[in-house]
Amino acid sequence: MWPYPRVVAHRGGGTLAPENTIAAMRCGLDRGYRGVEFDVMLTKDGIPVVMHDPELGRTVAGEGSIADFTVQELIVRDAGAWFGPEFEGEPVPTFEQVAAFCMQHGIWMNVEIKPVPGFEDRTGWVVAQTVQRLFAGLPDHRPAAMPLLSSFSFAALQAAQLAAPEVPRGLLIDDVPEDWHAQLRAIAAIALHINHLKLTPVLARAVKEAGFGLFCYTVNDPVRARQLLAWGVDGFCTDRLDLIGPDFADRPL
Questions:
Q1: Do the Cβ atoms of 129 and 156 come closer than 8 Å?
Q2: Quick check: is 138 in a domain?
Q3: Could you give the 3-state DSSP secondary structure of residue 36?
């Protein structure tokens, strides 16, 4: 039901490296993580890049929507200096660059489809087809080897399902809708990804009894992590790679 790593590095390196960069992926790898979560959206020319915010200004200097810039205009921008001088010059990576790094090092990917508003369908379609193309013809087709696509956008997941139905999907939610089960079924999702602060033991049991995987974001307290695992949570992502190791879930409760 959950063939993936149980503890996943959030945005690559959590609090230890500039999020959603190759440097962040390398940081998680150096800490022993073999599972990573990161965000993908589309540029003006339809190329998927790894970024969280739909607007420039926080991790990448500038103004304007990501959808207003071509990939060539974005990849030359600095995505590391905001975090610290040692990361100055770290570029905005494309999805294919991050995927290549992860595939080279045997890192499983939880790819969050993070559309710029108004580009939900297109982003879901392109990201799913990109995963399908990157993994086509590879000898290892076990479920654990294929990335899991997740999103808060139901429309993006619907588009991903149409574009590449064999690529697994997980529905991201914050507040739990009454029809969560129907939504998961509608997009043939294999897992529910939920804000751990909104999870209860009753809901955890219901999700597991319905046959879905259960993943939580973003768990930074080891005590809380232990509680969630005791409730039956399959996995979670964390920013605190310094407090919660990749083998945390495998240790006795």
A1: no
A2: yes
A3: strand
| pLDDT of the residue at 144 | 60
The predicted pLDDT at position 138 comes to 73
Q: How many domains does the chain have?
A: 1
For the chain, residues with pLDDT lower than 70 are: 139-144, 253
For the question of residue 52 being annotated catalytic, the response is yes
Q: Is residue 252 part of a domain?
A: no
pLDDT digits (tens, 9 = 90+) for 40-97: 999 999 999 999 999 999 999 999 999 999 999 999 999 999 999 999 999 999 999 9
57, with CB counted inside 10 A (0-12, 13-18, 19+), is exposed
Give the residue among 133, 190, 191, 187 at the shortest CA–CA distance from 160.
187
In a domain, 207, yes or no: yes
Residue 250, domain member (yes or no): no
Instruction: Tell me the three state secondary structure of residue 48.
Output: strand
* Angle (nearest 5°) at CA 147 between 56 and 221: 70
**What is the spatial distance between Cα 87 and Cα 201, in angstroms, rounded to a whole number?**
41
105 noted as active-site residue: no
Q: What is the pLDDT of residue 134?
A: 94
CATH number at residue 175: 3.20.20.190
Expressed as residue numbers, the domain containing 220 is 7-245
What is the reported pLDDT for 190? 97
The catalytic position among 52, 141, 181, 196 is: 52
